Amino acid sequence: MNEIIKVYVGSDRSQSLAVKVLEYSIKRHTDRQVEVIPMTDLKIPEPRDVRQSQRTGFSFARWAIPELAGHKGKAIYVDADMQVFRDIDELWNVPLNGAKIAVLEPQRETAENVHYSKNESSVMVLDCEKCDWTLEGLVKRLDDDFTYDGLMRDLCFLNEQDIARTIPADWNRLESFPQTTGLLHFTLMPTQPWVSARNPLRHVWINEVRRMVDDGELSCDEIQQEIDLGYFRPSLMLEIKEESPDFNNDEWISKLEGVDRKAGYVPHRSVEEFNRRRARALKSYERELAFKKGLGAYTSFIAKEVLDDAKNVARGFRSKLRS
């Protein structure tokens, strides 16, 4: 019972404040000693094959946890875009049944517009002593042995007996909030509460932020700093300070969106920049592969590239006409 619960969080700088809210929600609901470890500045290797590279700046971070823990004891992994409502001790003690990791139990029902993968790894419990891999070793295998999807969705580097699908649905609710929820996952990036006024559950997260401010665990200056850096929407401060907002009132939501438009706010700007860099690197890599295959393959690739660019220009033009 004296064991410290270690919670590793996949995150980047743009979600640092979201991690603080998550940490507060974890500690508020438990008497256990908890250490929350954001993996924000982790140096993550990349595969030579750009097609198998990370989809976010921290996609592979979860697989570094056993090394970070010295291959000792247990650990929990969660994403930054989450909030906890029950004792984290429940998650800590899910049965591993001799497996290396525990992931979500098989799901049949999901919220609209979201889906669970077979091996949903956005929440995990790991027996670090049994997890004998290294992050560098897994990434090297992406060049020859398996793909990004194989690593992240199929967990193909593990045997079936290494995976316990024992984490209850209540400990990874994707965009849904039944009364029994232990962990709410704001998985739809365009509507996460800190970037959008359109999330129907944003009041749950905002009320937690208000509680932090009232408890002296977070200051309005800290929130404003994240807004000034472009990580959080400008209208968030207005919503936090409003005494009794009607969160689902269309007029109120429109007012908030107007504040964000006037400020020129772009949600997840840093994520979009990451995606553009990856897209450029991917195109360059695929062009190089086509060139190595010969003139015919290279000519076909260039023709497709020109056609895709033309389609993107046309799509952008139509979008401007509609606006």
Quick take:
With 323 residues, the protein is an alpha/beta fold.
Descriptive keywords:
323 residues; alpha/beta; Spore Coat Polysaccharide Biosynthesis Protein SpsA, Chain A; 3 domains; 9 strands
Provide a descriptive summary of the structure in words.
The chain has helices at residues 16-28, 65-68, 88-92, 135-141, 148-152, 202-214, 220-228, 235-241, 250-262, 269-293, 295-322, and strands at 5-10, 34-39, 74-79, 82-84, 101-104, 123-127, 163-167, 173-174, 183-185. It has 323 residues and is α/β, with parallel strands linked by helices. The protein folds into three domains: 5-185, Alpha-Beta Complex (Spore Coat Polysaccharide Biosynthesis Protein SpsA, Chain A); 189-262, no CATH class; 273-322, no CATH class. Strand 1, helix 1 and strand 2 form a beta-alpha-beta unit. Helix 8 (235-241) crosses helix 9 (250-262) and helix 10 packs antiparallel against helix 11 (295-322). It is globular and about 65 Å long. The N and C termini lie far apart (59 Å). The model has no long low-confidence stretch (mean pLDDT 93).
What is this structure's SSE topology?
Blueprint: E1 5-10, H1 16-28, E2 34-39, H2 65-68, E3 74-79, E4 82-84, H3 88-92, E5 101-104, E6 123-127, H4 135-141, H5 148-152, E7 163-167, E8 173-174, E9 183-185, H6 202-214, H7 220-228, H8 235-241, H9 250-262, H10 269-293, H11 295-322
Parallel strand pairs: 1-2, 1-3, 5-7, 8-9
Antiparallel strand pairs: 3-6, 4-9, 5-6
Helix pairs in contact: 6-8, 8-9, 10-11
